[in-house]
Amino acid sequence: MRKLFSAHDSPFPSSKKLLSFLAMSKETATQQLWIAQARRVARKVNFAWWLQGFSAPLLLTGLLGTVAILLLRRHDALRPLWHYGSALAAVLVIAALVTWWLMRRHFESPEQVLVRIEASMRLRSALSAAQAGVAPWPALPAEIHAGIGWHWQRVVFAPLAALLLLSASFLIPILKLQANQQAPDEPQAWARTEAELNKLDEEKIVDEEYIEEVRKKIEDLRAEDPQDWFSHSSLEATDNMRKEHKAEKQKLERAMKQA
Question: CA nearest 140: which of 46, 22, 27, 45?
Answer without folding.
Answer: 27
